[in-house]
């Protein structure tokens, strides 16, 4: 153990400096390496970087404050005649040539007591991943607070799904609405629980360092105390789509972060995942230039040709942006596959832009038949559609029956596909009128079911 005198502006290591010598405080702090840790400690800070070349140490506290120590090279007057052990022309002392370990060149010799320090969590975790861990943990806590109530659970999924399109997003972040957002008033819960939810959200910035994202084995991600089971097919898909160097040390952590983010859409009362992972048959998407509303988990086109929910994270897996901003960057007359989430905000937004999208691109688009203000425009906007019978579950690599009548419309200008698929059939006006789904043999637990039934069963996934 060593002791050192540190001049700080507060009683804690690395505090804000104060002006004036009278405000400085001298504290004696010890530098040691606890037996249970391989990281050097000084007070309440850990050694983040030891730069011998520049003779500099960087200490960081758990709340992110930083202190940099530097040591100037020792300068001696050149002895008469110079010689071994003397100095060079700059006056800096040279170490003897026969020195075994060049101890004289070591700025901080006490570092030689043990091997070089390894990263110490959470200081080695990027700040954005720390914050995402806190966000995911808060949302999973909120789902536990809501408990076995299907309607609020599904409403929470819709709030999170539609949040980036909601006009009152101010005050929140990219994933969670702010504590003052009116969206929380749409949750059918008691006022006491609503206050508890708001309080839990407000604690997110204070729990950044305590909700660690990590792997437990090869198929489970831990976020704080929450355990998220992962499917091997999803992990393989993310590995295959990884854009940075394959040996990038951040890759396992980025994969864990993305799988944790998508888990917030899952309804714990359902035996299936959220429908955001479902897509049109790959045979359809392979004949498209771009996919909107895809993800690295289910995209069928190559990297750089699909948009996703969180491009600031998913660019590492090939995403080019998110809807609707990505539309401006797609080449005119491209063949674009559009499969929006079956939520109120997204469907209304897509239908409001449909005329513009049809002018700019050649579309292959899927739209559910729902009771909504835009339903009356379906027949005129999407003439001669087909009735979609199945979606494709990329994780299970199998078709999934559609539980709600859904139209598939392909622009006549689209290049013909090699084979007509068995998952579609021509749709008539009767299909537009009959939206109950009773006549279509809908038996699969799929996100595209009527909202009323979904609320009863807790399985209204959103694609």
Summarize the structure.
The protein is α+β, with helices and mostly antiparallel strands.
Task: Describe the protein in words.
Helix 1 (127-146) runs antiparallel to helix 3 (191-202) and helix 1 (127-146) packs parallel to helix 5 (251-263). The chain is globular. Strands 10, 11, 12, 13, 14, 15 and 16 form a seven-stranded mixed β-sheet that branches. The protein has a six-stranded antiparallel β-sheet with strand order 1-2-3-4-5-6, with no helix packed on it. The protein has a three-stranded antiparallel β-sheet with strand order 7-8-9. The protein has 463 residues and is α+β, with helices and mostly antiparallel strands. Helix content is 24%, strand content 19%. The chain has three domains: 2-71 and 107-113, no CATH class; 127-263, no CATH class; 275-457, Rossmann fold (3-Layer(aba) Sandwich), CATH 3.40.50. Mean pLDDT is 78; it is low at 7-26, 75-104, 115-120 and 435-463.
């Amino acid at each position: 153990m060593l002791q050192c005198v540190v001049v700080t502006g507060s009683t804690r290591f690395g505090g804000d400096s104060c002006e004036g010598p009278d405000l400085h405080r001298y504290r004696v702090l010890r530098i040691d390496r606890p037996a249970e840790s391989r990281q050097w400690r000084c007070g309440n800070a850990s050694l983040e970087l030891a730069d011998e070349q520049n003779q500099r140490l960087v200490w960081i506290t758990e709340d992110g404050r930083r202190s940099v120590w530097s040591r100037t090279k020792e300068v001696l007057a050149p002895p008469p005649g110079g010689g071994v052990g003397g100095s060079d022309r700059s006056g800096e002392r040279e170490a003897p040539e026969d020195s075994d370990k060049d101890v004289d060149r070591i700025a901080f010799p006490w570092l030689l007591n043990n091997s070089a320090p390894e990263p110490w969590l959470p200081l080695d975790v990027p700040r954005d991943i720390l914050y995402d861990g806190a966000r995911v943990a808060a949302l999973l806590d909120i789902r536990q607070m809501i408990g076995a109530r299907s309607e609020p659970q599904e409403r929470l999924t819709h709030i999170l799904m539609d949040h980036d399109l909601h006009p009152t997003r101010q005050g929140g972040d990219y994933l969670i609405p702010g504590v003052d957002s009116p969206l929380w008033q749409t949750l059918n819960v008691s006022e006491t629980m609503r206050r508890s939810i708001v309080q839990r959200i407000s604690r997110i910035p204070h729990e950044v360092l305590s909700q660690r994202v990590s792997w437990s084995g090869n198929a489970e991600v831990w976020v704080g105390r929450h355990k998220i089971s992962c499917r091997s097919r999803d992990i393989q898909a993310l590995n295959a789509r990884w854009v940075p160097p394959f040996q990038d040390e951040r890759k396992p952590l980025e994969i864990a972060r993305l799988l944790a983010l998508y888990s917030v859409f899952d309804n714990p009362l359902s035996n299936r995942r959220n429908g955001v992972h479902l897509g049109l048959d790959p045979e359809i998407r392979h004949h498209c230039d771009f996919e909107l509303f895809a993800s690295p988990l289910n995209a069928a086109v190559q990297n750089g040709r699909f948009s996703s929910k969180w491009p600031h994270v998913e660019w590492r897996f090939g995403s080019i942006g998110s809807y609707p901003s990505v539309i401006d960057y797609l080449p005119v007359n491209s063949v674009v596959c559009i499969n929006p989430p079956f939520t109120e905000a997204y469907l209304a937004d897509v239908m409001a832009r449909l005329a513009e999208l049809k002018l700019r691109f050649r579309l292959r688009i899927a739209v559910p038949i729902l009771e909504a203000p835009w339903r009356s425009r379906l027949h005129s906007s999407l003439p001669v559609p087909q009735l979609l019978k199945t979606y494709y579950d990329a994780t299970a690599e199998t078709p999934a029956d559609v539980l709600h009548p859904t139209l598939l419309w392909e622009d006549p200008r689209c290049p013909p596909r090699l084979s007509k698929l068995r998952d579609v059939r021509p749709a008539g006006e009767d299909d537009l009128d009959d939206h109950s789904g009773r006549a279509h043999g809908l038996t699969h637990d799929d996100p595209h079911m009527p909202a009323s039934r979904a609320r009863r069963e807790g399985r209204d996934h959103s694609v």
